[in-house]
Amino acid sequence: MLSKKIEQALNSQIIKEAHASNSYLSMASWCETQGLRGSASFFYAQSDEERQHMLKLVRYINETGGHALIQDIKEPKETYKSIKDVFELSLEQERGVTESINELVELTFSSKDYATFHFLQWYVEEQHEEESLFKSILDLINVAGTQEKNLLFLDKEIAGLRGKTE
Ligand code: OFO
């Protein structure tokens, strides 16, 4: 049985995962309009993953005697300055999600809700992987540079990186 406080905190996390999913969908759409098909497919897949993270929370809350709430989310950004801008924003977003997962972990531990604490370990691992993926892409962008002549190479590399982490 979830305490009200933990149920509310998990419901807030649903909003963050939904926002991440929408935000990656918006990035996918922008990349597609720029002819960056590899990056677009990377972000379409990333958006699907975030939706799965959201659904996992919905099911957990409902299975544990709570009520998962599906609430409105703020609109994601629609346009970006460059591919570097997109990945910088992604990393920043992932770091924000990691922070809120860490707060949830702390709350469940101090509340002695060990089942939810255990459930959240999957997210801890996932956030580590995602932060490291986005950081490695930004490193690659910084090394290659974003001049037009390198964009095709970068786009192909980005599309390939997605498969390696799954
Ligand atoms: Fe990477 O945001 Fe979900 O957990």
List the helices and strands and how they pair.
Blueprint: H1 4-33, H2 37-63, H3 83-110, H4 114-144, H5 148-165
Helix pairs in contact: 1-2, 1-3, 2-5, 3-4, 4-5
Bound molecules: hydroxy diiron-OXO moiety.
Hydroxy diiron-OXO moiety is lined by residues 17, 20, 50, 53, 94, 97, 123, 126-127, 130.
Bound molecules: hydroxy diiron-OXO moiety
| Number of helical regions | 5
Low-confidence stretches: none
Total separate domains: 1
* Cα radius of gyration in angstroms: 17 Å
CATH topology name: Ferritin
Task: Provide a compact summary of the structure.
By secondary structure, the chain is mostly helical.
What do you see in this structure?
The protein contains 5 helices and no strands. With 166 residues, it is mainly alpha-helical. Helix 1 packs antiparallel against helix 2, helix 1 (4-33) runs antiparallel to helix 3 (83-110) and helix 4 (114-144) packs antiparallel against helix 5. It is elongated. Residues 17, 20, 50, 53, 94, 97, 123, 126-127, 130 line the site of hydroxy diiron-OXO moiety.
Which properties best describe this structure?
Ferritin, 81% helix, binds hydroxy diiron-OXO moiety
